Amino acid sequence: MDQQSDRNASLREVMSSYPTGVTIVAAREGDGEPFGLTVNSFTSLSLDPPLVLVCIALCATSHDRLISSDAFSVNMLAGDQAPIAKRFATDPSEGRFEGVGWRPGELGTPLIDGSMATLECCRYEVLHGGDHSIL
Question: d(Cα 46, Cα 50) in Å, to the nearest integer?
Protein backbone atom coordinates (compact mmCIF):
# COMPACT_ATOMS: atom_id res chain seq x y z
CA MET A 1 0.00 0.00 0.00
CA ASP A 2 1.31 3.49 -0.80
CA GLN A 3 1.41 6.35 1.69
CA GLN A 4 -1.78 8.01 0.36
CA SER A 5 -3.70 4.72 0.61
CA ASP A 6 -2.47 4.31 4.19
CA ARG A 7 -3.74 7.80 5.07
CA ASN A 8 -7.10 7.12 3.41
CA ALA A 9 -7.48 3.83 5.31
CA SER A 10 -6.53 5.52 8.58
CA LEU A 11 -9.02 8.35 8.05
CA ARG A 12 -11.75 5.86 7.17
CA GLU A 13 -10.99 3.81 10.30
CA VAL A 14 -11.01 6.85 12.60
CA MET A 15 -14.18 8.33 11.11
CA SER A 16 -16.02 4.99 11.23
CA SER A 17 -15.71 5.06 15.03
CA TYR A 18 -17.37 8.49 15.25
CA PRO A 19 -21.11 8.12 15.94
CA THR A 20 -23.29 10.08 13.53
CA GLY A 21 -26.95 10.30 12.76
CA VAL A 22 -28.19 8.45 9.72
CA THR A 23 -30.45 10.00 7.12
CA ILE A 24 -32.10 9.03 3.89
CA VAL A 25 -31.78 11.82 1.34
CA ALA A 26 -34.47 11.42 -1.30
CA ALA A 27 -36.06 13.09 -4.29
CA ARG A 28 -38.40 12.15 -7.12
CA GLU A 29 -37.87 11.58 -10.82
CA GLY A 30 -39.85 13.60 -13.36
CA ASP A 31 -42.34 10.72 -13.54
CA GLY A 32 -42.84 10.87 -9.75
CA GLU A 33 -40.78 7.76 -8.94
CA PRO A 34 -38.90 8.21 -5.63
CA PHE A 35 -35.18 7.53 -5.25
CA GLY A 36 -32.74 8.05 -2.44
CA LEU A 37 -29.69 6.92 -0.53
CA THR A 38 -28.33 6.63 3.00
CA VAL A 39 -26.26 9.64 4.04
CA ASN A 40 -24.50 10.31 7.33
CA SER A 41 -22.60 13.40 6.12
CA PHE A 42 -25.37 15.81 7.07
CA THR A 43 -25.31 18.89 9.28
CA SER A 44 -26.97 22.25 9.81
CA LEU A 45 -25.03 25.04 8.13
CA SER A 46 -26.83 28.35 8.66
CA LEU A 47 -29.85 29.76 10.47
CA ASP A 48 -30.07 32.89 8.32
CA PRO A 49 -30.76 31.83 5.67
CA PRO A 50 -31.75 28.36 6.89
CA LEU A 51 -29.33 25.93 5.21
CA VAL A 52 -28.26 22.34 5.71
CA LEU A 53 -25.27 20.58 4.16
CA VAL A 54 -25.36 17.09 2.64
CA CYS A 55 -22.37 15.34 1.07
CA ILE A 56 -22.98 12.81 -1.72
CA ALA A 57 -20.22 10.54 -3.05
CA LEU A 58 -19.53 11.02 -6.75
CA CYS A 59 -19.69 7.24 -7.19
CA ALA A 60 -23.16 6.93 -5.62
CA THR A 61 -25.68 5.56 -8.11
CA SER A 62 -28.15 8.32 -7.16
CA HIS A 63 -25.55 11.13 -7.28
CA ASP A 64 -26.35 12.70 -10.65
CA ARG A 65 -30.11 12.50 -10.19
CA LEU A 66 -29.93 13.94 -6.69
CA ILE A 67 -27.70 16.92 -7.40
CA SER A 68 -29.82 17.85 -10.42
CA SER A 69 -33.07 17.73 -8.42
CA ASP A 70 -34.53 21.10 -7.48
CA ALA A 71 -35.88 19.71 -4.19
CA PHE A 72 -34.92 16.86 -1.88
CA SER A 73 -35.84 15.55 1.54
CA VAL A 74 -33.67 14.65 4.49
CA ASN A 75 -35.27 11.90 6.57
CA MET A 76 -33.59 11.57 9.99
CA LEU A 77 -34.04 7.93 10.85
CA ALA A 78 -35.08 6.54 14.22
CA GLY A 79 -33.01 3.83 15.91
CA ASP A 80 -35.41 1.07 14.84
CA GLN A 81 -35.04 2.02 11.16
CA ALA A 82 -31.59 0.45 10.73
CA PRO A 83 -32.93 -2.01 8.11
CA ILE A 84 -34.09 0.93 5.99
CA ALA A 85 -30.69 2.62 6.33
CA LYS A 86 -28.97 -0.59 5.19
CA ARG A 87 -31.38 -1.05 2.30
CA PHE A 88 -30.76 2.47 0.99
CA ALA A 89 -26.98 2.03 1.39
CA THR A 90 -26.69 -1.04 -0.86
CA ASP A 91 -27.04 -1.59 -4.58
CA PRO A 92 -29.05 -1.78 -6.65
CA SER A 93 -30.60 1.63 -6.13
CA GLU A 94 -33.74 0.68 -8.03
CA GLY A 95 -36.59 -0.55 -5.85
CA ARG A 96 -35.30 0.86 -2.58
CA PHE A 97 -38.70 2.37 -1.82
CA GLU A 98 -40.61 -0.86 -2.45
CA GLY A 99 -42.40 -1.77 0.78
CA VAL A 100 -41.20 1.42 2.55
CA GLY A 101 -44.00 3.68 3.77
CA TRP A 102 -43.67 7.26 2.59
CA ARG A 103 -45.75 10.22 1.55
CA PRO A 104 -44.99 13.24 -0.64
CA GLY A 105 -44.20 16.42 1.27
CA GLU A 106 -45.27 19.93 0.31
CA LEU A 107 -42.48 20.07 -2.29
CA GLY A 108 -43.32 16.55 -3.49
CA THR A 109 -40.21 14.98 -1.97
CA PRO A 110 -40.45 11.56 -0.28
CA LEU A 111 -40.98 11.74 3.49
CA ILE A 112 -40.35 8.33 5.07
CA ASP A 113 -42.88 7.14 7.63
CA GLY A 114 -41.50 6.75 11.16
CA SER A 115 -38.57 9.13 10.70
CA MET A 116 -37.63 11.10 13.83
CA ALA A 117 -37.71 14.30 11.78
CA THR A 118 -37.84 15.30 8.13
CA LEU A 119 -36.75 18.35 6.18
CA GLU A 120 -37.76 19.37 2.70
CA CYS A 121 -35.03 21.35 0.99
CA CYS A 122 -34.55 23.30 -2.21
CA ARG A 123 -31.15 23.04 -3.86
CA TYR A 124 -29.16 26.17 -2.94
CA GLU A 125 -25.75 25.37 -4.38
CA VAL A 126 -23.64 22.35 -5.38
CA LEU A 127 -19.93 22.48 -4.61
CA HIS A 128 -17.14 20.03 -5.43
CA GLY A 129 -15.35 18.51 -2.45
CA GLY A 130 -12.82 15.82 -3.36
CA ASP A 131 -14.71 12.64 -4.18
CA HIS A 132 -18.06 14.14 -3.04
CA SER A 133 -20.53 16.79 -4.11
CA ILE A 134 -21.65 19.16 -1.35
CA LEU A 135 -25.29 20.09 -1.58
Answer: 5
